[in-house]
Design brief:
The protein is built from nine helices and 15 strands. By secondary structure, the chain is of the alpha/beta class. The N and C termini lie close together (about 5 Å).
Length: about 280
């Protein structure tokens, strides 16, 4: 069996926000990956704290490093599952550029999400506008703060946010086609905004002494009309009706291997739902 995976991603890497999405495509005797930084599978899936971050967190590019790690962990699990991955990124300006040495935005400097994603992925990234649901089996949105700043305006506007038009299109296309969608970390808010009544998880609903520092995100999710289900960081949650799979990832302050396990659970469930 062959799982082709297309990935589109925008993640907040060492330099700034870069968003990630992967799409999986499947159809043949072998499972292979086709990768790009917006994860979409052709066995296809899309990945792309209180997430009303404080103004100070926003100014300092808080959580910027997590997209890169999430995308890498997802790609490891996709490779192990035999998917072919292709990566995509939207051709839009970043919200801002962060100097991570100083922890501050860089004034009078701008960067493009697609260009930065290509730099990080060594050129293997396609414009998200070219992602066609018919060519993929699933899509995965890795998450990270880039999803809240560049794929949407959630970091600034919370429940009143707007979602990038291409991101919205991809979510709706995969949903309408009955193809699985995977999201982790903060990216489940994208589904909550775009897909009415979807059931997702970003972990726990209380901070619990700082273990779940972004628990307030759950309030925004329910305010958007979605349902939130409490899950541990090592678990994935499946909305079988909508074929949406989510996991908390870095919404929890914990050991990296536990986050790795939760992401692995999400990827495995996406692949199972693809039927490949």
């Amino acid at each position: 069996m062959r799982l082709q995976t297309a990935v589109a991603q925008k993640s907040l890497l060492c330099c700034q926000d870069v968003v990630s999405m992967m799409a999986l495509k499947s159809m043949r005797l072998q499972r292979e990956y086709h990768t790009s930084f917006f994860l979409g599978f052709t066995t296809t899936c899309n990945l792309i704290k209180d997430m009303h971050p404080t103004r100070n967190q926003l100014q300092h590019g808080f959580h910027a490093k997590f997209d890169f790690r999430i995308s890498l962990l997802i790609l490891v699990h996709l490779s192990r599952g035999g998917a072919e991955v292709q990566m995509f990124a939207p051709d839009v300006p970043q919200m801002h550029v962060i100097d991570h040495g100083k922890g501050q935005p860089v004034e009078k400097e701008s960067r493009n999400v697609l260009s930065e994603s290509a730099r990080i992925a060594r050129g293997n990234v396609t414009d998200l506008a070219k992602l066609n649901v018919s060519n993929h089996d699933a899509v995965i949105f890795p998450g990270g703060f880039g999803a809240a700043k560049n794929l949407s305006t959630f970091a600034v506007d919370g429940k009143d946010c707007k979602v990038n038009k291409e991101v919205e299109r991809v979510l709706k296309d995969f949903h309408n086609a009955g193809k699985p969608i995977g999201l982790c970390c903060i990216s489940p808010v994208l589904a909550a905004k775009v897909l009415p009544g979807v059931d997702v998880t970003v972990g726990h609903e209380e901070e619990e002494g700082g273990k779940w520092p972004y628990a307030g995100t759950t309030q925004a999710i329910t305010a958007l009309g979605a349902k939130h289900t409490v899950k541990e960081v090592t678990e994935a949650h499946i909305d079988k009706k909508n074929k949406v799979v989510t996991t908390p990832a870095f919404m929890c302050e914990t050991k990296l291997h536990l986050i790795f396990d939760g992401i692995g659970a999400m990827v495995r469930d996406v692949l199972k739902l693809s039927g490949k």
